[in-house]
Amino acid sequence: MASPRLAQNHAEAMPDIEAQQPPSTTIASTRFADEPLSGDSSNDVQSDSSYTVNSDLSDQKPELASVGDKKIVSKRSSGTGRNLCRLSCCSFAFVLSTLLVVFLQPREPTWEVQKLIVPPAALNNCIQAIMSPSGENVKIDIDALVDFVNPNYVGAEADAGSFVVTWQGYELASVTTERGLAAARSHSQVTAHSTSIITPELGNLLKETLPGKNYLMQVNVKGKLDATVKSLFGLRVKVGLDCIVDASVLLIMSDPDKLVIGHKCTYDVSL
Asked: What pLDDT shows up at residue 83?
């Protein structure tokens, strides 16, 4: 009689034990219970291969992220390189512009008469035209050697120049200069040839005017010449000159080299 009672108590206790087991254990038991027990390992192979694929995909995600990071870094690097290139180009252009302004900016040259060559016949004609003009034209030929100073950083080869000397609206002389080289930042010698035609009208005006001014006169010299700047790829330019020249006429008899006592010039350069 005792055995049936013990069996009944054991059967009643089993549901309580099963109820106390965790759900995961029950789920796992149910899942494994549904799987066939035929011993076929194909399901295991599929499960392993799916796990391997998933594992590989999960492993590739960091690699994709790292490639994206490399692309971002590459873009930033290329952008920085372009900015540095632009900055370098701008700096080079600024330096080049500064050098061009410093070295190619035109600076006004200066000149002084070194020697005035007055032949005796020309001197006599000059004295006659000023002191006792006659009823005939008087021709006076004078040559001059001029010290020309070029302060610019580029030199030029000058063609023959043509200039006109006027006084109070009258043409006093025409002047031509010989071809020459004006070297950069140096002195050069220019030879000029002057020819004056003193008409009786002009002679009488000089005779009346000069004594009251202590034989000082102010003349205007204006003209132009063509020049070639070889250092600028053979650039051809036109040089214009406009000078106010002060002269002491009586010095032509005693010290002709000092006839010109002052001058002020302006220059114009154009293509």
From this structure: 72
The average pLDDT across 176-205 equals: 95
For position 85, what pLDDT does the model report?
Answer: 72
What's the longest Cα–Cα distance across the chain?
184
Q: Please name the amino acid found at residue 49.
A: S
Q: Please say if the pLDDT value at position 21 is more than 90.
A: no
- Per-residue pLDDT averaged across 91-117, rounded? 73
What CA–CA distance (Å, rounded) separates 67 from 221? 79
Q: What is the mean pLDDT of residues 111-119?
A: 95
Report whether pLDDT(93) > 70: no
Distance between CA 237 and CA 227 in Å, rounded? 5
CA distances, 12 to each of 1, 26, 29, 44 (Å): 18, 19, 22, 39
pLDDT of residue 195: 97
Residue of 72 and 167 predicted with greater confidence? 167
Give the Cα separation of 107 and 122 in Å (integer).
Answer: 36
Q: How buried is 149 (Cβ within 10 angstroms: 0-12 exposed, 13-18 middle, 19+ buried)? A: middle
Q: What is the 3-state secondary structure (H, E, C) of the chain?
A: CHHHHHHHHHHHHHHHHHHHCCHHHHHHHHHHHHCCCCCCCHHHHHHHHHHHHHHHHHHHHHHHHHHHHHHHHHHHHHHHHHHHHHHHHHHHHHHHHHHHHHHHCCCCCEEEEEEEECCHHHHHHHHHHHHCCCCCCEEEEEEEEEEEEECCCCCEEECCEEEEEEECCEEEEEEEECCEEECCCEEEEEEEEEEEEECHHHHHHHHHHHHHHCCEEEEEEEEEEEEEEHHHCCEEEEEEEEEEEEEECCHHHHCHHHCEEEEEEEEEEEC
